Amino acid sequence: MFNWLSSLFGAGRGRLRRGAPHIESIAAQNRYPLGPPVETQGARVYAQSPWVYVAINRIAEAGALVPLRVYRLEGERRVAISNHPLERLLADPNPVTSGFELFEQTLGGLELHGNAYWHLVGDAAGQPREIWLLRPDRVTIVPHPQQVVAGYLYEVGGQRIPLDAVEVLHFRRWHPDNDFYGLSPLSAARCAVQSDRHMAEWNRNAFGLDQGVPAGIVNIQDFVTDGDFERIKREWRSSYGGTARKTAFLRGGQMEWQHIGLSHSDLDFLQGRRAQRDEILNIFGIPVALVSENATEANAKVAERLFIERALYPKLVRIAQKISQELLPFYSGDLIAEYDDIRPTDAQARLEEIRAAYPLLSINELRAQYFQLPPVAWGAGPVGGLSAVPSTAQPQAEGGASSAKTAIETELAQWERFALNRLGQAERSRSFEVTALPAELAFEVSAGLLFAREREAVKAVFAEARSGLQHRGAEFSAS
């Protein structure tokens, strides 16, 4: 037995195989005539389930707003390429689809079906000229025994259109039980979605016209003939009847009506619907506090941060890496595509990181790395170096140390008023021109103001600067 098992393995191979031996078996097992095993009812569920609609729209619209950029790799450095042809193509993919719609529908397809497909149309040089979205429920993957995917079949109106593998960009989520197609979150949420839908329909029927509860009962104790009974009903309704509610008529006092159903209160109806909502949103990665009417501002901010970090950003990375792997090779150069890092950062931790870099980087390097700001004439030296002080900041000899300190304090006060007046307008207003402040102090104030969004935070930045000025007065007032 041991010898037979040993003969199955290449004990003397000593190197990697040139191909994957299991691909042929996978290709034979997955026959393309079976059609795509995707969520075929996804469109109907999306249109009928409010929470599925909300979850997918939040993801698709938020992701479509994030810009995708192309970088050229130079060793370990990434150099941004402005207005790359791929960026222009993604902004205008085809005559009837905008860039926003392209990514909105791509992200929506991944959430609804677990798959999204781009059909690439080339120009005379063989580079992509147009991108067309393919409906996932119409696409069938054709396996190949060596290349994994031989191509795709797109079925419209009974006609199957063959597409080469190089023509189609296939985005997919992980599916533990399928080698070619992705798994939709909608499949995992099927039970919760169906339960929520049935509860909504039961609630609608409970208040429908045929399920209305009578406004009252007229119980006729004495026996009356059929003619008298009809006459009494007719006269009552002509005098007191209405269209909103019906009136029940009973003959004799022995007839009783007993309700055997359960009311909304008995079923804890509202709590049940909230539970279904929470389960659906959690499956799609949407924190409940983003849509809850009882969420506080603090809870909503935490929920937004969790949504960006743990749900939205990983989905964007999936798309960017697929584009880098299969679309950017059409263009020359060592290129990658990346989305802007939209993950929120801890302002205090970032400020501490910047301060830790003071001894290692110059002011201009800090400005470029952490704030994407252009260099300044006085930024060649380190933050703590006196050589970095602007020439205009040197005090007059006759003024001495006290006049230098007074000039610094005056400029701090002017800068504080400037920052308070332009709070919330930093991107549209000019910067404060530093003339007397030493470079280290000016840089610390600039860094602090970048994270200050309220008046009290702005005042705290300048209060800290004044405190530091008192402790290091001799250093800052040196001539």
Task: Characterise the protein shown here.
- It is a single chain.
- The longest helix has 30 residues, at 297-326.
- It is flat and about 115 Å long.
- α9 links the parallel β9 (216-220) and β10 (247-251).
- The termini are far apart.
- It has 3 domains: 17-188 and 287-343, no CATH class; 191-255 and 267-271, no CATH class; 347-476, no CATH class.
- With 479 residues, it is of the alpha+beta class.
- The chain is 46% helix and 14% strand.
- It is built from 18 helices and 11 strands.
The ordered H/E elements are HHHHEEHHEEEEEEHHEHEHHHEHHHHHH
Number of domains: 3
Number of helices: 18
Rg estimate, integer Å? 35 Å
The biggest sheet, with number of strands, parallel, antiparallel or mixed sense and barrel status, is: 3 strands, antiparallel
Mean pLDDT: 79
Q: Strand sequence of the main sheet, in spatial order? A: 2-1-11
Helix share, percent: 40-55%
Instruction: Give me the count of strands.
Output: 11
Shape: flat
In oligomeric terms, what are we looking at?
Answer: single chain
**Poorly predicted segments:** 385-399
The structure class reads: alpha+beta
Alpha-carbon distance between the termini?
90 Å
Quick overview of this protein structure:
The chain has 479 residues and is an alpha+beta fold. It is built from 18 helices and eleven strands. The strands form four sheets. The protein has a three-stranded antiparallel β-sheet. A three-stranded antiparallel β-sheet has the order 4-3-8. The protein has a three-stranded antiparallel β-sheet with strand order 5-6-7.
